[in-house]
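Record 1 of the preview.
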Amino acid sequence: MNYKKLGLVSLLLFLSVIGSSVFGHGVDGATKNFLLGNDGVAFIPFLYIGAKHMLTGYDHLLFLVGVIFFLYRPKEVLVYVSFFTLGHSTTLILGVWWNIGVNAHLIDAIIALSIVYKGFDNLGGFKRVLGYQPNTKAAVLIFGLFHGFGLATKLQEFNFGREGLFTNLIGFNIGVEIGQFIALAFVLIVFSFWRHSNSFMRFSTLTNTLLMAAGFVLLGFQLTGYFTS
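->
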């Protein structure tokens, strides 16, 4: 098997999917109608919506790709993903439950910065520029908190009733974790093949540079939305 071609094709496919959906990330019409009309417990629908949202959440997925890019052992992947999960689960549930208002464009701009941060970190930028390496686990946890607020702000837009809210939030959060697991499984399978090729290290700089570029594009898009809305 040509691991180099497999890795490059998979990477291009992943980036093309992201590029095609960059301006459409959000809630589709059917989901919007459901959320606006929902009243009471709807655990399974919220679970499904959470999973679907994560699978189409290119900003969250790009950050996770950066996080696991140089993680080779399953234990390391589990630890870092757990920090991210702890962060976004906390602010997702509490943000909606306590109705903490955050500007959607600003929070998504910070999420975009998290992508830039991880790409820069993977390129060894902090050691070169600052002379030291920030705590990566702490960074993943902190950015996870912002990613959770990003999810919370999207749910808060619909202002649905509080009856059954906690159960629905748990369902949505579990769905997010399911979607995250499916996406990570795909990425890890691709990486497991690609890492057997010499092209992995040769193209690691290019890949993380593209990761940073994607983050800057998203940052510009969200700041434009903030200043024009």
